[in-house]
Amino acid sequence: MIVEANEVLSQCVILIILIRRASYSIIVLIRKQAYNFVGYIFSQRFKREKLQNLNRISRYVENDPLNINSACNLTKKEISLIKSTFGRESREYEPWLRFYKTATGIFNPEFIPCWQYAYMELSLNKRRYEGFVQHKCNLRYFIGEENRPTTILYAMDGVLYDRTDKIITPSMAIKKLGDYDEMVFKVASNTGGGKDVKKITMTEKSDVDFIASKINKIDQDFIVQEIIKQDSTLAALNDGGGCNTLRVLTININNKCSVLSMFLKIGAKGSFTDNVCGGGMLCGVDILGNVKEVGYTHDYTRTYTTPAGLPLGGLKISHIDEVVRFVTEAHKSFQQMHLIGWDIAISQDGRPVVIEINLDSAEILAHQIPNGPVLGSRYDEVMEYLSQNTPTKFIKIKLKQ
Q: In whole angstroms, what is the distance from residue 161 CA to residue 169 CA?
């Protein structure tokens, strides 16, 4: 009887071991297939990015603001360098490096193509958190009140809140807005290029009707803020029009946060927003705040003056040291985000004010055409970091042996 019991027990143990091994093999297979599938999805996305952005080059060729039709041909030495640097991927880089050489007069293999920058964003910023972090109503969790526009009220998930995060009714919200002559309404997420940003003047019936309709029927998250009184130097660039801002790109890897690039966005004369596609312009800014003498319109037509007619050469941004100090310190609060494009206004008293942050589609052409290769002295470091932190790494399943 004892012998039979031992045999049964042994068979049960063997069966358990086989089941565990089979389960482990199945999990390994699932992981491998999932990893391959996600890798395929990413590869297809980057393939589309390459095609779309090559089409973007074609658009510039058609409009020809950068004289692409008389493009600088790459020399044999430059083509050889591209092949030795990028190997099989060289054909994906060559048209972009030719494009950048034509646009800037500089050949440098460290220029980042748009499709590669999309890969960088996927690698450096965790997608699962982006929606929350970029949401304008959530900036209060990361940025102090003194470095944000003053909030009047906001709406999230169909609920209205005042600036102290207390729930309020629509009638209370409308009464609160009556204390202000003007304000700015912003949709809280999935916006760009000044889209869904509106100046509200309480003496204008159409504006009052607009904001009342948004409050009484909340169909999207939004925030209402006081209008920023900007630095006088920046205000003069478009004759006292809308708020002009700096787009500052920062990277935080290997325990070091630094500014990669900056450019200034200047709104069209009389425009409330600073968006380039709405008739404004952009120009490069160096780390000392000096504005580059050449600026660009939305299609990268060159310009040498601001919308107010001021020459770009010789302009200098005030309080740039404070801006650099602020963004490099504030970036450390976004632990899961290693690459951030900041839209920064400068107040009358010199404070950097965060309008929004950008974690994807952060205008790589607008950085590199006026300023050169965006990664600068950190190019090799970032490329090494990316090789160890691919987008698919974040979905790998950890298994216990």
A: 8
The helix or strand, by DSSP H or E, that contains position 15, with its residue range, turns out to be helix 2-63
Any idea which residue has 């290769």 for tokens? Answer: 373
What is the rounded radius of gyration, in angstroms, for the C-alpha atoms of the chain?
26
For residue range 210-246, list pLDDT tens digits in order. 999 999 999 899 999 999 999 988 888 887 667 899 9
At 389, the pLDDT band (50, 70, 90 cuts) reads confident
Here the tokens at position 64 are: 């020809």
Q: Identify the H or E element spanning 389.
A: none
| CB distance 303 to 321 below 8 Å | no
State the Cα–Cα distance between residues 71 and 80, nearest whole angstrom.
Answer: 19
3-state secondary structure of 47: helix
- Kindly report the backbone phi and psi dihedral angles of residue 339, in degrees, each rounded to the nearest multiple of 5, phi listed first: -140, 115
In sequence order, which ranges of 147-281 are alpha helices (DSSP H)? Answer: 170-177, 205-216, 232-235
Residue count of the chain: 401
Model confidence pTM above 0.90: no
Q: Is 281 helix (H, G, I), strand (E, B) or coil?
A: strand
Evaluate whether 250 touches 331 at the Cβ level (below 8 Å): yes
